[in-house]
Structure formats: structure tokens, C-alpha cells
């Protein structure tokens, strides 16, 4: 049975993932303007509709890229991909987190609402299965605080695959036939196509 979508504040801390190297895009994806604003800041503002506290997770080298009103989190462990950002966020806020990557411009408030309302706090997290690539979508997801020690253990063992962590632990996977909003914009060609069509 589909859960009713309700828009309300909750105990989740919003986290915008903006620390990627953007090698394929050849420019910082967090600063691209799809909506007349740096995309990381746009996503942060979306999250403020649902979360009392929101942070942008980024590299220290990016610290002057964003408006001073946005709170930043820097990676505790660098150069290990988004798993490092997830751990750093859990360690910093000491609460469950709602993660959103900055490179999903198709994402709307209604999608965030749906994710929150499917949340199962008894699991380690809640997320979608991406039908485009037949993988879990770990960068638009809820991670309950109790997953922190498992994430740290994987980092210490130099196992950085979020997909494997999800496979080995009890996550709630949202049933969905359509999830086009999970589309990542990773290359100049994809960016130009999106801008031309929107």
C-alpha cells in the first residue's frame, strides 16, 4: 500500500553532497546554475522545507564557493568517494541524515516528500533502486544514525562501495516504477541537453 505523502519537518538533518571532483563535467557540478543559483545551494534550500538543519558536504578547497549562510561539513576521510561524506556527516551531526547529491536537477520537493514518508526508522536506511542502471541510488537516501559504525568499519577495511554496504545490511528499498528524477547530470553534453529542454 502506497504511503501518504505529508510535508512536515522531522528529525532528519539535510546533507547536500557537493564534494565530487566533477572530472567528467570538467567544471564543479555544485556551482552549475540550473535555477539561477549554484546547484548545491538550490538543493540546500529545497531541504530546508523539510529539515531544520542543512549542511553542504564538500572538500576544504571548496569552502569559499558558497554563500556564508550555508553550513559546511568537510570529509574526515578524503579521496574515498561519497562514503567518506556519509560518514563525516553522521559523525558531525550525530543524527539520521537525508542525503541529496547536487547533480540531480530533476529532483523536486514531491520526490523528497515521498522519500521521507517511506522512511522506515527500524532499518539502516531508506532509498530507491535506480531503474536506469539497475543499482541502488545511495546519493538520494536516508541513512539512520545507527549505520555509522558499519560505515566506519568498511572505511577502516578500505571497502568503499556503498552498494555493497546496502546489500549486506537491512535497508528499506522503495518500490517504484518511475524514478526519472534520479537522473544524474555528469557531462557537458548532458548539462547542455538539460538546459536546452528546460
Describe the structure.
The protein has 198 residues and is α/β, with parallel strands linked by helices. It has one domain: Spore Coat Polysaccharide Biosynthesis Protein SpsA, Chain A (Alpha-Beta Complex). The protein is built from 6 helices and 7 strands. The protein has a 7-stranded mixed β-sheet, sandwiched between helices. Helix 1 links the parallel strand 1 and strand 2. Helix 2 crosses helix 4. The longest helix has 12 residues. The protein starts with 12 loop residues before the first strand and ends with a helix. The N terminus is likely disordered.
The dominant shape is: globular
CATH topology: Spore Coat Polysaccharide Biosynthesis Protein SpsA, Chain A
Count of beta strands: 7
Major sheet details: 7 strands, mixed
Strand order in the sheet with the most strands:
3-2-1-4-6-5-7
What is the name of the CATH architecture? Answer: Alpha-Beta Complex
Order of helices and strands: EHEEHEHEEHHEH
Number of domains: 1
| Cα distance spanning the termini | 33 Å
Mean pLDDT: 90
- The helix/strand class is alpha/beta
Number of helices: 6
Q: CATH class, anyone?
A: Alpha Beta
As a whole number of angstroms, the C-alpha radius of gyration is: 16 Å
Percent strand equals 15-25%
Q: What is the helix fraction of residues, given as a range? A: 25-40%
The name of the CATH superfamily reads Spore Coat Polysaccharide Biosynthesis Protein SpsA, Chain A
Amino acid at each position: 500500500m502506497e504511503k501518504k505523502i505529508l510535508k512536515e519537518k522531522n528529525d532528519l538533518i539535510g546533507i547536500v553532497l557537493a564534494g565530487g571532483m566533477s572530472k567528467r563535467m570538467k567544471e564543479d557540478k555544485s556551482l552549475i546554475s540550473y535555477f539561477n543559483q549554484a546547484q548545491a545551494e538550490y538543493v540546500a534550500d529545497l531541504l530546508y522545507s523539510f529539515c531544520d538543519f542543512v549542511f553542504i558536504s564538500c572538500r576544504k578547497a571548496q569552502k569559499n564557493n558558497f554563500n556564508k549562510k550555508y553550513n559546511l561539513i568537510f570529509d574526515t576521510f578524503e579521496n574515498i568517494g561519497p562514503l567518506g561524506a556519509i560518514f563525516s556527516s553522521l559523525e558531525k551531526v550525530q543524527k539520521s541524515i537525508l542525503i541529496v547529491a547536487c547533480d540531480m536537477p530533476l529532483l523536486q520537493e514531491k520526490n523528497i516528500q515521498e522519500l521521507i514518508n517511506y522512511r522506515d526508522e527500524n532499518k539502516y536506511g531508506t532509498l530507491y533502486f535506480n531503474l536506469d542502471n539497475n543499482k541502488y541510488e545511495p546519493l538520494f537516501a536516508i541513512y539512520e544514525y545507527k549505520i555509522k559504525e558499519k560505515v566506519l568499519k568498511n572505511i577502516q577495511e578500505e571497502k568503499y562501495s556503498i552498494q555493497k554496504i546496502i546489500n549486506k545490511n537491512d535497508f528499506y528499498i522503495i518500490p517504484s516504477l518511475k524514478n526519472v528524477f534520479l537522473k544524474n547530470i555528469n557531462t557537458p553534453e548532458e548539462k547542455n541537453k538539460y538546459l536546452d529542454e528546460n
